[in-house]
């Protein structure tokens, strides 16, 4: 699967549960808490990526997200530090575009998702990258994610195009499939590794 | 609005019908029943009739002129824009059955648009008359198709009132108390609902939630699957509260049917609302509110078969079935002479009671012979027409109406405090039907603590 970053060892992480209290704002270098926002065109699979990551589920019936859903998940890294992701899964519909700042304001991580079978969604992803460069936090960690990588036969966005674009914009790039779970955990583990360790949340 | 002519509700055929429309009060109230006026008000001690009538007048004003969009002319400046908006709804409207209240539906549809977009969408039309709003509505087709469906089964759509899930008074009080707690901490509205029925709701001081907005809000939440997946925070507009501005709604399903909506004006309030929800959920679980809600959903409600034979004493009576209706459990108060399969006493098949002061209604559960969805829809349309004929401004407010056709005897009785709509067997005896309506009113009043949200109504502030 097209992943430009070196894959971390699959066994290096373990899911933690029971870290769902929202009030522990205090973070140290071992236990980070970070706000993550998913942006991208409607139908590219943002919610599916999150639900695969947080609940290990995949539901093929499309459920249009309204506004934004909030989910959280904590992962443990090899060095025994933990990262708690507070995830805003935003609606991809155009009417919510103007409200996106509400959700990406203060985000330490932005995951911009497109569908590898839809060039239009890749264009939309570039729109979001520009928007984040203009209005997002200056030190935001950005990931470009080509989802639906299981649909290789219908691919319309060449992997090289996306890699080039990601590199030019200082983004981490990965292709995922929420359906098969390919690279979903890797995506979040890679993000966790790239977080500045002195993150102010 | 080109569809008005085609879609307008048919005049009710006058042939083969026995119709009496009476303007004076009290005709339905034989003196022997002991009813005077104030049946169905929330309190036993009625305020003076003068105050009540002025309140009613106020309500009528609200529906037409307090800056709230109701007719097409005020929807957007310029008819052309209106046509644009309407055209978005055209396809939808074409599905609405001929007997439906189409004008009402178009209004509701426009308001549902506002829930999603706010009236600021008008600016787009002002800038560009050819503006295509279709992309803005992406993914909302389910919301509108669910709204259409409401107009074939949900009495709230034409009554402009909401209904509560039947619950023991202390249970609803417990839910209301924790919601009030939250409202005091800066939440504009805290609403706990189960499907389309209100468990409890509170508003911040002076904030009032219109029943029409509640219908649209519940429709929006229930028809959008993503709300069930995880907690969410979404901009939302309540057209009757402020058609120009978004509020922010924290929505969380506590179980499959029961959901909490916390509305605020602050876009930064998510974590506060989340904390509120955690507190509320804990209290609801501890005090068993959620399990009682589930019980009521399965077994609660008013059944015409349970209509008490004799008017009960004014206080102290509670239907043993209310909120705990168990099929097969025989009760001494259950109507003895009601044959199973033919409804309640005197051929009573169904009723809807709307409390004017509370802006709430209660509808009896459907039972035989109104048990197929076809029959339920037909009765629903009959009620809609009855409502329309009783509220037709041209002919003045009617106080009573008795109508007999091949399908039903329909009885409507409107006082300052309540509106009663009742359907009987088409062969029902008129005098008995009238007497039965009085008993229904008494019954509703006897159990009002359990079927209505009292005292906490935002409309009472």
From TrEMBL, chain A:
A Pfam family annotated for this UniProt entry: Ras
Keywords in alphabetical order: Nucleotide-binding
GO MF, one example: GTPase activity
Gene3D superfamilies associated with the record: P-loop containing nucleotide triphosphate hydrolases
Top-rank lineage group of the source organism: Eukaryota
This protein's record includes keyword Nucleotide-binding: yes
SUPFAM superfamilies documented for this protein: P-loop containing nucleoside triphosphate hydrolases (SSF52540)
Listed PANTHER family: PTHR47978
Protein name, per record: Uncharacterized protein
Organism encoding this protein: Coptis chinensis
Lineage start: Eukaryota, Viridiplantae, Streptophyta, Embryophyta, Tracheophyta
Automatic annotation (TrEMBL), chain B:
GO biological process: protein targeting to vacuole; vesicle-mediated transport
Pfam families noted in UniProt: Fuz_longin_2, Fuz_longin_3
Domain of life: Eukaryota
PANTHER family in UniProt: SAND PROTEIN-RELATED, VACUOLAR FUSION PROTEIN MON1 HOMOLOG
Protein name: Vacuolar fusion protein MON1 homolog
UniProt family annotation: Belongs to the MON1/SAND family.
Annotated ranges, domain FUZ/MON1/HPS1 second Longin: 186-279
Domain FUZ/MON1/HPS1 third Longin: 347-447
Annotated function: Plays an important role in membrane trafficking through the secretory apparatus.
Residues making up the signal peptide according to the UniProt record: none
InterPro entries reported for this sequence: FUZ/MON1/HPS1_longin_2, FUZ/MON1/HPS1_longin_3, Mon1
Listed Low complexity bias regions: 41-51
Region (Disordered): 1-69
Naturally occurring in which organism (per UniProt): Coptis chinensis
């Amino acid at each position: 699967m097209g992943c430009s970053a070196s894959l971390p060892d699959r066994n290096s992480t373990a899911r933690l549960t029971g870290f769902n209290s929202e009030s522990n704002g205090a973070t140290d270098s071992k236990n980070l808490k970070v706000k993550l926002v998913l942006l991208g065109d409607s139908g590219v699979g943002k919610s599916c990526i999150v639900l695969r990551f947080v609940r290990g589920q995949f539901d093929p019936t499309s459920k249009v997200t309204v506004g934004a859903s909030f989910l959280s998940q904590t992962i443990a890294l090899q060095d025994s530090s933990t990262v708690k992701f507070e995830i805003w899964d935003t609606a991809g519909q155009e009417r919510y575009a103007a409200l996106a700042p509400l959700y990406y304001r203060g985000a330490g991580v932005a995951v911009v998702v497109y569908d590898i079978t839809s060039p239009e969604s890749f264009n939309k992803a570039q729109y979001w990258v520009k928007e984040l460069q203009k209005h997002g936090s200056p030190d935001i960690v950005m990931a470009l994610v080509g989802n639906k990588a299981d649909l290789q036969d219908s691919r319309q966005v060449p992997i090289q195009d996306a890699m080039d674009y990601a590199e030019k914009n200082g983004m981490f790039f990965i292709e995922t499939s929420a359906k098969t779970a390919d690279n979903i955990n890797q995506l979040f583990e890679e993000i966790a590794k790239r977080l500045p360790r002195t993150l102010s949340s | 609005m080109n569809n008005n002519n085609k879609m307008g509700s048919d005049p009710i055929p006058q042939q083969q019908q026995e119709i009496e429309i009476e303007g004076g009060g009290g005709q339905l109230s034989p003196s022997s029943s002991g009813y005077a006026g104030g049946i169905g008000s929330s309190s036993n001690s009625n305020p003076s009739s003068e105050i009540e009538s002025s309140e009613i007048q106020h309500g009528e004003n609200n529906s037409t002129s307090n800056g709230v969009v109701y007719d097409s002319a005020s929807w957007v400046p310029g008819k052309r824009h209106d046509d644009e908006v309407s055209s978005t709804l055209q396809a939808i409207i074409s599905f609405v059955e001929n007997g439906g209240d189409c004008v009402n539906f178009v209004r509701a549809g426009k308001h549902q648009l506002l829930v999603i977009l706010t009236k600021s969408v008008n600016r787009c039309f002002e800038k560009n008359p050819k503006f295509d709003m279709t992309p803005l509505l992406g993914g909302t087709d389910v919301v509108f198709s669910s709204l259409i469906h409401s107009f074939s089964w949900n009495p709230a759509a034409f009554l402009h009132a909401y209904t509560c899930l039947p619950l023991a008074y202390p249970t609803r009080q417990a839910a209301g108390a924790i919601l009030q707690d939250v409202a005091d901490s800066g939440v504009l509205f805290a609403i706990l609902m189960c499907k389309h029925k209100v468990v409890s709701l509170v508003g911040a001081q002076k904030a009032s939630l219109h029943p029409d907005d509640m219908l649209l809000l519940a429709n929006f939440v229930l028809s959008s699957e993503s709300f069930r997946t995880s907690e969410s925070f979404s901009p939302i507009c309540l057209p009757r509260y402020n058609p120009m501005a978004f509020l922010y709604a924290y929505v969380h399903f506590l179980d499959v049917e029961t959901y909490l909506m916390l509305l605020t004006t602050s876009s930064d309030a998510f974590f506060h609302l989340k904390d509120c929800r955690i507190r509320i959920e804990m209290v609801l679980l501890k005090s068993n509110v959620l399990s009682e809600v589930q019980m009521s959903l399965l077994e609660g409600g008013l059944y015409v078969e349970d209509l008490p034979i004799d008017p009960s004493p004014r206080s102290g009576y509670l239907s043993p079935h209310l909120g705990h209706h168990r099929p097969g459990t025989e009760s001494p108060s259950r109507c003895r002479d009601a044959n199973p399969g033919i409804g309640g006493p005197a051929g009573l098949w169904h009723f809807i009671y709307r409390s004017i002061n509370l802006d709430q209604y209660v509808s009896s559960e459907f039972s035989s012979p109104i048990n197929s969805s076809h029959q339920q829809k037909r009765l629903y349309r009959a009620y809609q027409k009855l409502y329309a004929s009783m509220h037709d401004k041209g002919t003045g407010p009617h106080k009573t109406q008795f109508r007999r056709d091949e399908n039903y005897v329909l009885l409507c009785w409107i006082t300052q405090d309540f509106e009663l709509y009742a359907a009987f067997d088409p062969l029902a005896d008129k005098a008995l039907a009238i007497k039965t309506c009085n008993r229904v009113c008494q019954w509703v009043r006897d159990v009002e603590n359990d079927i209505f949200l009292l005292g906490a109504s935002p409309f009472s502030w």
